[in-house]
Structures are given as structure tokens and as C-alpha cells.
Task: inverse folding
């Protein structure tokens, strides 16, 4: 199947890229610059993996999100919370309907490029926090995209029922260099080691029993 | 209900604005600059009606559509077809998943602004041509948006089951000045009078039995 993959440059979507290449062709990788605090870091790694795999890479700018939307993930928002990666702690970092927007743009681009499916790396660890990462949302969004495109474009979510620990296990088997990925929501040049996503990153490597190659600031 | 309305500056969405104001509050009107040939003309009228009604108006730029998507509606595309407004003739003007993209962005903005529903002026005359104007698509997209937002945002499509003729009848009763709306897909300073959308505009006024206030180039 010809696919278009949403590639942020984090562990999940980078793994999804290599995972998808085992079974499908990838017409293009699509990244977004939407003004999150960690966007510049993420996109460097997205570009790095697109280059490694020889996949055409598009970066679309969505400046209006940082300007108009409310979220502490954005440069226009407040501080990133430290500590656990759970709903109570991380809800302020939700960018309203971000996955819906990214999937919709991907649907239009997929139809323009002749791709048949969009790959998104949403995983079970995100479900509690982000309404637009849950399986129920993804199934409904796929129904809308299939109905709203001539080609009946589909959504593939290979990690919908696994967590980040399992993603890291699978990616390690594929030989992925996770030092070339970014998680930290705070941005900067090194992972902070304290925010919710850094905490989740550390825990996931520990639970997977795989050495964490990340250089933390601490 | 607090609503966010998609306002292009054409007959349908301008009528939807005044129609919605009868029953609901309108938190903001949202327009997009996406590089269609007629975007500049449309947006002038969108701004005019937002100003007339005292509604906050946001214009979001989606430059990537003109750059990356395939459609003759776009400045990057080919000629606009003349003649009838039907699928065979107009399919080249479909911008892939345009309504899905606009509704998704509106969903994120609605959640940020505290609006509870998005108003879209899709009507039955568009169904044959545009897959993302059909009721089936709108219901599925609403299900996805409701599931993917904390507020469970809804879609209101007041004209889903009526045609442009009926829209013009209803809008005329509301006192709308249709000389302050734009339809022509070709752009320019006057309606061309020959393209599919000009043909549909003329026919709809004729069928409604209401004088067409449009100044055509011919």
C-alpha cells in the first residue's frame, strides 16, 4: 500500500516510519511546524530519518496554531509541567484537535500524491491524556476521511494498542538509533530530564530493558 | 449555543452567518486564504459581513494547499471549467479534503475559544461534486470532532438538505445584500458569468424568482 506518514521526529513516529517500510511503500513523510516549544528540535530528527530512509519529506507551517490556540505546549503558552506523564499533569499541554488537523491535511496531501493510507503513531500511553489519540477517535476520523476523499483514504495506526515500551522494543529490533529522536516538551538543545515526556521516555527505556541513549541535561 | 462559523464570503456561508445569528451566538467567523484563484475576492466579502454583524473575524493562511495540492481551483492549477455545475465538469476544481481541513482547524480553534459548535454552509447542490460536502461525510466528521475534543464540539450544517435556490430565498427574507458576495471561481474584479459557479449563481437566483444583483463581466 502507498502510505503518507506523519513524522514528528519523536520515538513513536520514527519507529512507525521504519516499521511501515517493512510492509508498505512510503510516498512521503509529513511534518508540521506549529510553534511548539520543541518543534525545532523534533524537526531536525524528522529530517534526519527521512534522509536516512530516502523518503521525500514535507514540512508544513501552521503558524496560526501558536498564534490562536491555547496550550502550554506552544511557545505562546505557559510552563511545561514536570513529573508524571498522566492526564492531570499533562492536560495543559494538549493542543486542541492537533491530530485531527494533521490527519486532515495529510488526507488532502495523500489524495494529491496518490497515496492510499496515512500512518499515525498514536499509542496506548497517550489515550488517557489526548482525546485525539484514542482508538475511538482514530476509527471515526478514518470513517470521515474515507467518506470525504475520492480515493477513500485509510488511516493505519500500527501502535494503537501498544505502549511506548513495546514501541522501543520493536524499534530496537529494527536497528533504530534512538539518540536521533526527540521527546522533551521544553525544547532547548538537550533533553531536560524532568518534564512529563522526559519522564515517560526514561521509564519506557527502563521498562523495555534497553539502555537509554539520551543525553539528559541533569 | 456558542458557535464558530466557516465564512468564505460566498452566498451560502454569508447566509449561514445571518441565519445562525437568529438562533445562536457567533463567537468568531473563520476564513482561509489557501491560494484559490478567487480567494482575494471572497475574503473581502467575508470581512465585509463580519464587520456588518460585528463578529470577530479570523483569516488563517494555508499557503501549503496552493503549493502542494492538486486542483484547478488553485492558482497553481489549470483553467476553471465553463458551463454546468455538475460532477463531470467541476471535479477538477475539488481541493482534496478541503472541508475536512477547514472543519478540523475550526474544531481546534473552537475548543480554544470556548465555542460549542462549528457552522458549515454545505448544501445539497454540492453533494454530487464534493465528497466532503455530503451529509454522510459531515456526520462522520462530527463524530470524529466530538470524540477528539474535550468539549465534544458539534457540527451544525443548517443547509445540508436544501439547495442554493432555497438558501437565496431564506437569505433574502433576512435582508441579505447578495451583491456583497462572491461566487466566480475565476477570480478577477467582476464575476465572469460563464464558469460553473457563475452558471449556478445565475440559475439559483432565477429559480428563486429573485433579481440577481450581480454585475457580470459579459
Result:
Amino acid at each position: 500500500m502507498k502510505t503518507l506518514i506523519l513524522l514528528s521526529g519523536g520515538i513513536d513516529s520514527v519507529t512507525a516510519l521504519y516499521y511501515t517500510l517493512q510492509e508498505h511503500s512510503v510516498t512521503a513523510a509529513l511534518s508540521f511546524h506549529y510553534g511548539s516549544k520543541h518543534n525545532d528540535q523534533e524537526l531536525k530528527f524528522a529530517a534526519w530519518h527521512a534522509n536516512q530512509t530516502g523518503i521525500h519529506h514535507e514540512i508544513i507551517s501552521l503558524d496560526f496554531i501558536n498564534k490562536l490556540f491555547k496550550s502550554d505546549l506552544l511557545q505562546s503558552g505557559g510552563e511545561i509541567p514536570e513529573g508524571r506523564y498522566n492526564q492531570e499533569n499533562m492536560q495543559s499541554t494538549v493542543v486542541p484537535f492537533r491530530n485531527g488537523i494533521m490527519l486532515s491535511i495529510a488526507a488532502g496531501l495523500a489524495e494529491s500524491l496518490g497515496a492510499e493510507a496515512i500512518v499515525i503513531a498514536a499509542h496506548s500511553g497517550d489515550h488517557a491524556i489526548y482525546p485525539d489519540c484514542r482508538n475511538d477517535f482514530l476509527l471515526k476520523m478514518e470513517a470521515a476521511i474515507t467518506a470525504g476523499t475520492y480515493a477513500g483514504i485509510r488511516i493505519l495506526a500500527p501502535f494503537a494498542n501498544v505502549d511506548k515500551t513495546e514501541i522501543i522494543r520493536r524499534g530496537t529490533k529494527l536497528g533504530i538509533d534512538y539518540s536521533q529522536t526527540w521527546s522533551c516538551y521544553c525544547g532547548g538543545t538537550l533533553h531536560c530530564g524532568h518534564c512529563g515526556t522526559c519522564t515517560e521516555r526514561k521509564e519506557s527505556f527502563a521498562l523495555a530493558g534497553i539502555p537509554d541513549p539520551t543525553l539528559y541535561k541533569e
Q: What stands out?
A: Chain A has one domain: 2-208. Chain A has a mean pLDDT of 95. The domain at 2-208 of chain A is CATH 3.40.50.620 (Rossmann fold). Strands of chain A lie at 2-6, 25-33, 57-61, 117-119, 154-156.
